[in-house]
Amino acid sequence: MSALQVTWFVLIGVLLTGYAILDGFDLGVGFWHLFTKKDLERRTLLNAIGPVWDGNEVWLLAGGGAIFAAFPHVYATVFSGMYLALTLVLLALIFRAVSVEFRSKEPSQRWRNSWDVAFALGSIIPALLFGVALGNIMRGLPLNLDWTFTGTFLTLLNPYALLIGFIGFAMIVTHGALYVALKTEGDLAAQAVKWAQVSWWAYVLLFLVGTLFTAMTQQHLLENYLRIPALWMLPAAVFVMIALIGVFNRWDQPRQAFAASVISIAGCMSLIGVSLFPRIVPALGRPALSLTVANASSSELTLLVMLILALIGMPFVIGYTIWAYRTFGGKAETEPGGY
Questions:
Q1: pLDDT, tens digit, for every residue of 264-322?
Q2: C-alpha dist (Å) from residue 205 to 128, 167, 199, 209, 269
Q3: Which of 8, 11, 41, 251 is the most exposed place for a label (fewest CB within 10 A)?
Q4: Whole-model pTM?
Q5: Are 305 and 161 in contact (CB under 8 A)?
Q6: How far apart, in whole angstroms, are the C-alpha atoms of residue 9 and residue 87?
Q7: If we measure between CA atoms, which residue out of 199, 179, 197 comes closest to residue 189?
């Protein structure tokens, strides 16, 4: 296991964490979109994410591309094994994008309601299935000697993966509600605070259940924590940040609550990374067949060239992201002709 292989394991984790944080609130807003009754409020929600949602998805593309180039065996195994689920995610993201752009092209209420449903479903499906996918990777996939997935679509719908999926879903809808509270004013912001408090309770309870269930059933995920006891501070810190979300939200401090949500998401992604390392995809029941940082990577030359390109390109992505959020900061406004 080389330094370049470990570096790319960390960098891919950073890219996927960036996506979970940035597009996470977009997906969360999509869930709450149908809970509003007024057309003005629905357009305000879309305006809140309108300037940034497509830029947020760049992080997913970058993460997927990095997996393909740095760990091609992982890409081949995961994307082929989860082909149907990932196709559903792709279709949902396409419909979500189209709904954002098409919703206000016609004044018909039926037209707008149809795209509202498409926007909500296009947000809910990825928010849930991304978590289910991570749950399956944490649990391990049934692999043969060629690292080929030997299960079926129903194999992916196991209790542990579904539990992780619901944890991720609760995390995302809480994140989305906090973003709405931060970006809107008046009755909509007040309603968003209530949404966040309800989903926060689900987030807390599911996180505790998931932690306990993982400790009881997924012993391979505890190896690093047992070897390095100081790592137990990480799940404790994550739980503290999740608790602070509810505290700040109750105190009507949306900025602090949203910041705590951001840190909790980064913490959850770090938990997954620390639990898996040096594995990337454990082999269910056959640990020796697991895809690891060492055996699933590209050549050292490929990793080096990619790192140089990443060091050149990533500052532009980060710079654009910072510019977009600064330029379109403040409260969302809704004007005639908007979403």
A1: 999 999 999 999 999 999 988 888 888 999 888 888 999 999 899 888 888 888 888 88
A2: 17, 9, 10, 6, 18
A3: 251
A4: 0.91
A5: no
A6: 25
A7: 179
Tell me the domain boundaries of the chain: 3-327
CATH of domain 3-327: 1.20.1630.10
Sign of CA dihedral 244, 188, 329, 22: positive
- What per-residue confidence (pLDDT) applies to 208? 94
As a whole number of angstroms, the distance between CA 242 and CA 31 comes to: 20
Token pair in block for residue 182: 């931060």
213-229: pLDDT as tens digits:
998 999 899 999 999 99
pLDDT digits (tens, 9 = 90+) for 236-253: 999 999 999 999 999 989
Which residues, at least 6 apart from 195, have a Cβ–Cβ distance to it below 8 Å?
32, 35, 173, 177, 180
Quick one: pLDDT band at residue 195, thresholds 50, 70, 90?
very high
- Owner of token pair 């542990």: 160
Kind of pairing, strands 279-281 and 291-292? antiparallel
Q: Which of 238, 258, 239 is nearest to 248 (CA)?
A: 258
Mean pLDDT, range 114-129, rounded to an integer: 91
Residues 8, 155 contacting (CB under 8 angstroms):
no
